[in-house]
Amino acid sequence: MAEGEKTVVTNRKARHQYHILETIEAGIVLQGTEVKSLRQGKVNLGDAYAK
User: Fold this and answer.
1) pTM (2 decimals)?
2) Angle of CA points 29, 20, 43, to nearest 5°
3) Is 32 helix (H, G, I), strand (E, B) or coil?
4) pLDDT value of residue 32
């Protein structure tokens, strides 16, 4: 991660339920209300996945 950047959210539930062999960093595209929720700290990654 570059200097000055911070991790906003991690999927802790995935780390609890699965044995993680590899960690990747993924970007996502957010729209208006999603950005607002992110800024308020109300992020839910319960159904998130990466391909």
Assistant:
1) 0.46
2) 35
3) helix
4) 84
